[in-house]
Amino acid sequence: MIRWMLVVVIALLVFQGLTAWLRRYLGFGRLPGDFVFRAFGRQWDLPLGSTVLLSLVAAAIAHWI
């Protein structure tokens, strides 16, 4: 259980670091279903549409391999 939690935390940190690159070059965060909120002096991104698209691509790659 701890190993999976560690994997999830590391994946989230890597994903957070790649967000600016993904947004600039691949349009991540600009699909329908991606929400941007401003609250408490910060910008909060909720990329639901992009997350679904990336999970479908990952599932397709896993299926082909």
Automatic annotation (TrEMBL):
Top-level lineage group: Bacteria
Keywords, comma-separated and alphabetical: Membrane, Transmembrane, Transmembrane helix
One Pfam match: DUF2905
Organism: Variovorax dokdonensis
Membrane-crossing residue ranges in chain numbering: 44-64
Protein name: DUF2905 domain-containing protein
